[in-house]
Design brief:
- The chain is of the alpha+beta class.
- 41% of the residues lie in helices and 19% in strands.
- The longest helix has 62 residues.
- The chain is rod-shaped and about 125 Å long.
- The relative contact order is 0.08.
- Keywords: Coiled coil.
């Protein structure tokens, strides 16, 4: 009588109907005599099922360890392959996550570099603005301050202006006197931050030099 055995393959996971034509024994049943020492029928069945994933010598060893129980061997092989598949998926997923993290890190560094470059550019522009001065220094007393005229371009840009007093006036009160703005020509320069004597190494700065 022909005997049938079933196993799941690791590739398509479909049931395969294998016919034992040798009629030597039942699967996982009685063993051959000790004089034979092997399981030729079971080995042929395992080679058909698992020969592409396991060497013949390993299949022989598995048969000896499991007393010729083909079903137990196939179940063990399938479990091992499934575990390897899960492990491979985990490794691939980890690599993907690492790649995404690396990409995000590079993007963050790129944004940081752009931000640093922008900040440096703003600092340069700010320093250039600080160096930009309206008016000019002439012999005599020169004072620097801010124009309070809202229509004045220097006032809108919050740029300091230089006002020359010449040698006629030797004193001034920055909180009471208005000086003529060199940009708008109005007596609207009231916030004085610096006084300078032309061709002198000395300069006097007010204690409050904040921009109005």
């Amino acid at each position: 009588t022909k005997e049938e055995m079933y196993a799941y393959t690791y590739k398509d996971e479909q049931v395969m109907n294998l016919v034992n034509k040798d009629n030597d024994r039942l699967v996982g049943g009685m063993q051959h005599g000790e004089d034979q020492g092997k399981y030729p029928t079971e080995l042929r069945a395992l080679i058909r099922l698992c020969g592409d994933v396991m060497e013949e010598e390993e299949l022989k060893r598995q048969l000896e360890e499991n007393n010729g129980n083909v079903s137990a061997i196939i179940e063990k092989i399938v479990s091992t392959l499934m575990a390897q598949k899960v492990s491979l998926h985990s490794v691939q997923k980890k690599k993907l996550i690492n790649a995404e993290n690396k990409t995000q890190e590079l993007e963050n560094k790129s944004e940081q570099v752009k931000g640093d470059q922008l900040e440096q550019r703003l600092d340069i522009l700010q320093k250039e603005d600080e160096r930009m001065e309206i008016g000019e220094t002439k012999p005599g007393i020169n004072i620097q301050g801010y124009c309070m005229n809202q229509d004045c371009l220097a006032a809108k840009a919050k740029l300091p202006v230089w006002v020359n007093l010449g040698f006629n006036e030797i004193s001034f009160h920055s909180d009471k006197t208005s000086y003529r703005c060199p940009d708008c020509s109005q007596l609207t320069v009231t916030s004085i931050v610096k006084a300078m004597f032309f061709n002198s190494e000395h300069s006097i700065s007010a204690s409050d030099n904040s921009i109005p």
